[in-house]
Amino acid sequence: MVCSHILGFPRMGAQRELKSALETYWKSASEPDDTNPDLEKLVEMGKQLRAAHWALQKKAGQDWVTVGDFAYYDHVLNHIQLLGCEPARFGFKKDTPELERYFAMARGSLTVESGQAMSMTKWFDTNYHYIVPEFFPETCFALSSERLFDEVKEAKALGYPVKAVLLGPVSFLYLGREKADGFDRLSLLPKLLPVYRQILSRLHAEGVEWIQIDEPVLGLDIEDKWLAAFRDVYQELSREPVKLLLTTYFSSLAGHIDTVCSLPVAGLHVDAIRGAEDLKEIATKWPADRILSVGVIDGRNIWKADLDKALAVLRSPGLAGRQNLWVAPSCSLLHVPFSLDAETKMDLRLKQCLAFAVEKLEEIHALKDALVKGDAAVADALESSRRTVELRKGDWVHNAQVAKRVNALGEGIDRRKSPFDVRQALQRKRFRLPAFPTTTIGSFPQTQKIRSARAAFKRGAMSEADYRQSMQDEIAYCIEQQEKLGLDVFVHGEPERNDMVEYFSEFLEGMAMTVNGWVQSYGSRCVKPPVIYGDVSRPKAMTVEWTKFAQSLTDKPVKAMLTGPITILQWSFVRDDEKRSVVADQIALAIRDEVADLEKAGIGIIQIDEPGLREGLPLRRRNWREYLDWACRAFRIASSGVEDDTQIHTHMCYAEFNDIMPDIASLDADVITLEASRGDMTLLKGFKDFSYPNEIGPGVYDIHSPRVPSVAEMVGLLKQAARVIPADRLWVNPDCGLKTRQWKETYEALDNMVKSARLMRETVY
Which of 571, 581, 673, 760 allows an S-S link to 630, with CB 3.0 to 4.6 Å? Predict the structure, then answer.
């Protein structure tokens, strides 16, 4: 029987209702009053959103609604509570409400000294961030949350057929982090499996037939011991009277196919977008009497599917005529926006080429109908798809001048004039900064006043002159605060910027913005990825005016802020009709032009952020070298056209970098700032082992938490860093930008940061 289903759905709602409810609750939870009426409203909003999303799935003809993909903050954090392994360091009392504990782990606790928020890192190669589980030898597990079972009951009560979803036990352990030396978190598996069995048993008792059990680490180059663990794990879990759909995504299963096909599970889901080369072998080896779910609709991108191409895959040898075939997206639809309905101002040519989550539900159902009823049953959908394929070949997509410039790039285009030690001496002479120079990563708090002015200007309710004056007033305020704090290198605060990628996309040809194309990044934080639909170029300067104005207000150096080519690439929905390396070069040239204009305007320090660099790394190591070569080259193309005394910074955050340290060094940035505080400076081990040659600013406090760290905490982290990095090459800065914080906590934290730098100067020099 051919069926259709999805692996997960966007959580925030059509109008980001969950974001609003979360932030209202967090604000009221921070008030001194013990009661919080907004908690009940938050829980009710979650219930309403789940019901609405299940209704959409059913309306679109899905054979099951997916239950368990909803989270108030993060699905991995859901599992930390479900499995009863909340870190003991939080000191939670038995009567502490579940959601209060939940958000304390995600955002930090103000009530205990060890209440720093749990680490957060990228979910594979996406821009979604998950909370990293913490594992100790003494970690125990126990079924400790009813939320999943309550959600199953909700869906059942509404009359929906339920497919529950769990993160698999091997992936849960693999994605966590050991917090004790010499300890192997895989050794916790015997303690974890009984709890998984208990969960499966409970779900069966609730009437759940199918459980989607996600094991995305099967798409990685995992060690043999982890691969071997799958056999024991699924032999054990198969004893429960439920049907398991083993689910993989984001990558090829190459090297693991024999293991996967030997597991005693009732079904297997494979990503046919990123693992298309696996399908023939899997179709041959996967038993014909078991379910094979094929992800032929791209869950990571927003382009309308080529339905003819997808049907060709589903009708290929080994799949054609298969009775146990399920049609699905490649992965959860969490990674795409909600619906195209709100895009009323978009170029109609572009809109015809797109499909968001709701539209992808329709595409999946169309493919099922074509397989079951024949192509004539979906003739309109097929014709629309074919028109889109032709539309994307037009002149509105391709620019001959851009192609010519990229093709003409020479060998030396990506190299600075002199080596780092020569540049460093000239830069120190120019800026005369003290030891342990202090700076921030770029943005300052985006107040309601800033957001209101920007919104009014966009809708035409504020004149351009009034808007410019409003932004200049905000910049002046940021400069004034930095003067009071005594920072060494200033920033203009970025009040004019809605998002570090969206802002630039509004200036670049070949890119477009949506009105409501929001995608969750972490917690309540949503981003609106631009759409790279054609060849990219920069018609005019993007940042020079604001940076020049800020510099005119102070004698301190003001650092210009740009987003790097790979981050723009990674944090956009990228065209799929051109090589990503070519698109990266196009963006790099646009940023290079901006860098040149900033330098001409007298700006001597320019930061080109690349937090997306590690995120773009292919999941299989065999593909790393090709990617790193063109990605690092793109950064150097963007940054290398300056004089030796112009200082180039870059910033990276919330990802693991130790395994690509030589490539980070190859960027040849004069200064790199990076997230480090949430990981207790463990990232610095890679800089020590590699002997990173340039200057480094490891973040000394976590900006994603409202908690203000003490001077002693920051000094402790700086002393850790100074044991790894020579003190004369250390900068002092936060983990990331400050746009999501409030001014009061920002000022207090930065004040402590400046004091910690001054103490280090007294101690070391």
Answer: 581
